[in-house]
Amino acid sequence: MSLRINADLTAPVRTRGGELPWIDSPAAGVQRRMLFRIGDEQARATSIVRYAPGSRFARHTHTGGEEFIVLEGTFQDETGDFPAGTYVRNPPGTSHAPASAEGCTILVKLWQFRCDDDVRTVVRPGEGAALELAPGVDAARLLFEGAGERVTVEDWRPDAAFNLNSQDGLELFVLEGSFNDGQESLDRWCWLRLPPGQILPVRVGAQGARVWMKRGPVLHDDVCRFDNGAAPQ
């Protein structure tokens, strides 16, 4: 029976990713904390993945696409080195052999692309278009816009208070700092997902907060379908 973790896409989800247990992957030295999963090794999944120094994963194809942001250390593959803060989208059909000489941690989403989302994107730290600032936001950069999604990194002002409208759906990951959403305080590596039409009240902590945020459907209606011949990921 396949794993189902936070699989009800109609329900709000708040998960303290920094407190979840590390689970071994098929590759030695590579472990993950599962935030969302539908499937087994081949799965629609959102995870925090940790590479021990010198670890690597065998070459594999991302039939359903791969999206990640580097949280710590330097992620590597044959296309280059990706330091903390780098955002990458590897579209369906791309392949690589990931590794990390010094060790790294990434937030990664698998099998959540549309099949026509076919442009590779790499945004390094400090890159990305600067956006007009909403109340309570000190800095905001656009990482990706297209395929029904808008992905940003935002720095929220200490002690600011404002509302976020999920509209078509909202996913948020706390990179640094903390905020309270009216129910609890969400700090580093907390993950939140809201279905369409909900309002998220935000009161930022005294140290401010940096968040990775995606606006768009929590899962596209035309998401890539599983191919039973695809390699585990």
Condensed summary:
The protein is an all-beta fold and 233 residues long. The chain has no helices and 22 strands. The chain is 0% helix and 55% strand.
Please, could you describe this protein's structure?
The chain has 233 residues and is mainly beta. Helix content is 0%, strand content 55%. It contains no helices and 22 strands. The strands form four sheets. Strands 1, 3, 4, 5, 8, 9, 10, 13 and 14 form a nine-stranded antiparallel β-sheet that branches. Strands 2, 15, 16, 17, 18, 19, 20, 21 and 22 form a nine-stranded antiparallel β-sheet that branches. The two termini are 17 Å apart.
Distance between the termini: 17 Å
Beta content comes to over 45%
Structure annotation, total helices: 0
Q: What is the alpha-carbon Rg in Å?
A: 17 Å
Helix content: under 10%
Q: What integer is the average pLDDT?
A: 94
Which series of helices and strands comes N to C? EEEEEEEEEEEEEEEEEEEEEE
What is the number of E strands? Answer: 22
Low-confidence stretches: 228-233
> Based on CA inertia axes, which overall geometry fits?
globular
**SS-based structural class?**
mainly beta
Main sheet characteristics:
9 strands, antiparallel
